Amino acid sequence: MPKEHPHIVIAIDGPAASGKSSVARTLARKLRYVYVNTGAMYRAVTWLALEKGVPPLDAGRVQQLLHFTEMECGVRDGESTILLDGVDPTPHLVSEAVNGNVSAIASIPDVRRLLVKKQRAYAFDYDVVMEGRDIGSAVFPETPYKFYIDASAEVRALRRARQGLQDSITSRDKQDSTRRASPLIIAEDAHVIDSSNLTVEGVTGEIFGRLKQKGLPLGEL
Ligand code: DC
Fold first, then answer.
1. CA of 175, closest atom in ligand 1
2. pLDDT in tens, 110-167
3. Second label for 12, Cα 20 to 30 Å away, from 49, 127, 128, 140?
4. Number of folded domains in the chain?
5. Distance from Cα 191 to the centre of ligand 1, integer Å
6. Cα–Cα nearest to 173, from 207, 133, 142
7. Confidence of residue 172 (pLDDT cuts 50, 70, 90)
8. Tell me: the pLDDT tens digits for 45-64?
């Protein structure tokens, strides 16, 4: 780990509705690390653009909007938080409008540059479990603890439907995997887990086994 990131980073990547959020949150709680949801950051910027009437496909205007917005990324109760000009966008992050536009926002290189900086800053202060699309491949390529959680398209669609959310995960995945800036890929050294037939505990257990193997001190866990 380079000196500027003295803390432990566990990277959890994967497509939409692969179960990575539940796994990352459970893991972070057990380890007492901070859980960082990077998807929420891209969603927050998407919400801001929609709220201010800025078209998500207009990269120049989105960048300008961000330039004039104060973004505070923090931690509360062991989880990442975000405020935009003092406003907490959390209640709006899984709306249909945000789901439909977040991939466009996430493909803007300047947006990614800014958010990646904020994501890396967490590891200055905390041990983290960070989930997203590019954590192992681009945000913390140096971490030895990388996981890629997958699940079949059917299982993922079913999981979203059970959450009662309108989310076109197939088109979002396609956009996220084919964009030019840090697309969703499986990092070469990531441990891949297919969660289609596993519970959250099952996946978390497999990750613990792997972390132990890699020599991460896990105490009583
Ligand atoms: O994990 P999620 O479904 O909440 O993420 C929402 C979108 O944000 C996803 O479609 C792609 C983008 N994203 C990204 O590009 N990079 C990340 N590290 C996390 C999310």
1. 10
2. 999 999 999 999 999 999 999 999 999 999 999 999 999 999 999 998 888 887 777 7
3. 49
4. 1
5. 20
6. 133
7. confident
8. 999 999 999 999 999 999 99
Residue type, 95: S
Q: At 47, which CATH number?
A: 3.40.50.300
| Ligand 1 atom nearest to 176, measured from its CA | 11
Domain hosting residue 31, numbered range: 9-213
Kindly state whether residue 219 falls inside one of the protein's structural domains. no
CB distance 4 to 117 below 8 Å: no
For residue 39, being part of any structural domain is answered with: yes
CA angle 82, 77, 120 (to 5 degrees): 50
Residue 3: inside a domain, yes or no?
no
CB of residue 42 inside a 6 A radius of ligand 1: yes
C-alpha angle with apex 16: 14 to 71, nearest 5 degrees? 90
